[in-house]
Write a structure and sequence with these properties.
The complex is a heterodimer of chains A (252) and B (304). Chain A has helices at residues 37-51, 69-78, 98-112, 131-139, 192-198, 239-249, and strands at residues 2-7, 9-11, 33-35, 57-64, 82-87, 116-120, 142-153, 156-163, 166-173, 176-180, 203-207, 219-226, 234-236. Chain A has 252 residues and is of the alpha/beta class. In chain A, helix 3 (98-112) packs across helix 4. The longest helix of chain A is centred in the N-terminal third of the chain and has 15 residues, at 37-51. Chain A is globular and about 65 Å long. Chain B is α/β, with parallel strands linked by helices and 304 residues long. The relative contact order of chain B is 0.12. In chain B, the strands form four sheets. Chain B has a seven-stranded parallel β-sheet with strand order 7-10-6-1-4-5-11. A five-stranded parallel β-sheet of chain B has the order 14-13-15-16-17. A two-stranded antiparallel ribbon of chain B has the order 2-3. The chains are: A alpha/beta (252), B alpha/beta (304). Chains A and B meet through helix 3, helix 4, strand 7, strand 8 and strand 9 of A and helix 3, helix 4, strand 8, strand 9 and strand 12 of B. Strand 13 of chain A pairs parallel with strand 17 (287-290) of chain B, so a sheet runs across the interface.
């Protein structure tokens, strides 16, 4: 079985986000970019499936700007076998909507015929939490979101999902789309020899037009603004004073 | 304009708070029809009919709709979609699982929060920026962050109409494990007490738990505490963990990395206890106490 692992290149999660002065978006020029952390967990899981003999091949995919080559090389250095980059934008500030990404991924899936698509539950930039579900819908496949445990048994996969208030375990028929949550695993760091080896692994480059997908956004971004800044409050001198202040505000 | 609201139904029971808050958000868009779906949904439907502002309730009972599985529920909603301009739900894991699937089947995008019928405001980058978007899609599929809306009252008496169900054999339910803890759930708790690297060990994390129990609070942790093995992953508050916005957030031994602040800075009141007076957490805290947490937390727990 082949596992396809799509990922998004996003601003590094340790960096502070700055909104551009003209309100046209978040400033991403000359900013450190990384693989979306949830997608990194999906890459790790795919590699573990291969190491456990449950998958024969792992294919990393990214859709976005040419610079996503870097995060694809990261996936290859972690252990993915090969990579596909679909270049759909020149400007790093262009965010491709999940619906368009899902349509392109559907075309990639039609070509690659994986038994399982594994991706993060959401990207930490637009926080939409939609691509996996949309891809599953377009393919007419089963879906399991927010996976914190995953077990392949023959032609189905048993997934434990992180849901409000607890866990839900479901059994989904393969082929399936599974989106992963934080608890599934801890991604490995790529070793230096593997980083060197990754440079020689195949990376195919394609365009949206190759797949006949229109990526024109459905949503018009009117503006992007800073969320309200919090002002620093006061320092209290003791536990008693803290309790008193909290009582004054009605928090206790 | 007509709005279809997917109610949160768990094992036949209506999640009243989430649904009533979503009704408040939805009635600004048009006449609200509430959909209750499940193996048994009649009681939930009757209760949904009492929410002020609900014009009609649709009740779909089918064993195929049990356990909130996405495929069948999405098929059901797509079958009803033609009559509505908006398809909405509270932003719970239930709806976040289903609505994007509905949107893709309708060939439309999915959105969060509302300004007016066509303009939407949504937090991006874990709430670090707010994006305002306009949608020209024929059907708007929207989830509401419920904590920004007050629950609609009761006293209504909307009619309940039974409709055909749906089923799908792509997925099947195995089991549910409700969190064993007596503490409230992290993302919906009114009070959250979180511990960071400063707590120092898994054993000492009990200090955080004791304070949380005294406040009837949920327990959270910073990524540093999770990475150090002091607390399990599912307690992580931050950009890659849970995003919380309680009435009161108590950060103990947390320095305040950007990652963490992104997950809690919408809390109404923030208290920080840290021995490092330069810690960035004090820049967002309403009340900061510069103290050794091993003295301050037990004292606070005792005096509350």
């Amino acid at each position: 079985m082949k596992v396809l692992v799509p990922h998004k290149r996003v601003i590094d999660s340790n960096l502070r986000v700055r909104v551009k002065a003209d309100g046209s978006g978040v400033d991403l020029a000359n900013v450190k970019m990384s693989m979306n952390p949830f997608d990194e967990i999906a890459v790790e899981e795919a590699i573990r499936l291969k190491e456990a003999g449950k998958a024969e091949e792992t294919v990393a995919v990214s859709i976005g700007v040419k610079q996503a080559q870097e995060t694809l090389r990261t996936a290859l250095a972690m252990g993915a076998d090969r990579a596909i980059l679909v270049v759909v934008a020149d400007d790093v500030h262009t965010d491709i909507e999940p619906l368009a990404v899902a349509k392109i991924l559907k075309a990639v899936v039609d070509e690659e015929q994986p038994g399982l698509v594994l991706c993060g539950k959401q990207a930490i930039d637009n926080d939409l939490n939609a691509t996996g579900q949309m891809l599953s819908a377009l393919l007419g496949w089963s879906q399991a979101t927010f996976a914190s445990e995953l077990d392949i048994n023959g032609d189905s996969v048993q997934v434990t999902r992180d849901v409000d208030g607890g866990l839900q375990t479901i059994d989904v028929k393969m082929p399936a789309v599974v989106t992963v949550d934080l608890r599934l695993n801890e991604p490995r760091y790529a070793s230096l020899p593997n980083i060197m080896k990754a440079k020689k692994k195949p990376l195919d480059e394609k365009s949206a037009a190759d797949h006949g997908v229109d990526v024109t956004p459905r949503l018009e971004v009117v503006k992007t603004s800073e969320s309200a800044e919090r002002a620093a409050g006061i320092k209290v001198g003791s536990v008693d004073e803290l309790i008193e202040k909290l009582k004054e505000t009605g928090a206790l | 304009m007509a709005v279809l609201l997917l109610a949160e139904v768990n094992d036949g029971a209506l999640a009243m708070d989430a649904t009533a808050k979503a009704v408040t958000a939805a009635k600004a868009l048009g006449d609200v029809t509430v959909l209750c779906a499940g193996a048994s949904a009649a009681d939930a439907a009757a209760e949904a009919g009492t929410i002020d502002g609900v014009a009609k309730v649709l009740c779909a009972e089918d064993v195929g709709l049990s356990h909130r599985l996405a495929e069948a529920t999405a098929d059901l909603i797509v079958g009803l979609a033609g009559d509505y301009s908006h398809i909405v739900a509270p932003a719970t894991t239930y709806a976040k699982n289903i609505l994007p699937r509905v949107a893709a089947l309708l060939d439309v995008m999915v959105l969060t929060a509302v300004v007016d019928a066509d303009t939407f405001e949504r937090p991006i980058y874990a709430g670090n920026a707010i994006q305002t978007v306009k949608s020209a899609d024929a059907t708007k599929v929207v989830t509401f962050r419920t904590y920004t809306f007050d629950a609609a009252g009761t006293g209504g008496s909307a009619a309940v109409e039974n409709i055909a169900g749906a089923s799908n054999d792509l997925s099947s339910w195995v089991e549910d494990k409700v969190a064993e803890s007596d503490r409230p759930e992290l993302t919906s708790a009114g009070v959250v007490v979180s511990g960071g690297r400063g707590v120092g060990s898994e054993e000492d994390f009990a200090l955080i738990e004791k304070l949380a129990d005294k406040l009837n609070a949920a327990v959270g942790a910073s990524r540093a505490a999770v990475d150090s093995g002091f607390a399990p992953n599912d307690l992580q508050v931050g950009q890659t963990g849970k995003v919380v916005a309680p009435e009161l957030y108590v950060a103990v031994g947390i320095s305040g990395a950007i990652q963490h602040l992104a997950g809690m800075k919408d809390s109404k009141i923030i208290v920080a206890i840290n021995k490092d007076e330069e810690a960035p957490i004090f820049q967002v805290a309403d009340f900061g106490l510069v103290a050794d947490l091993f003295d301050a937390v037990p004292e606070l727990t005792e005096k509350l």
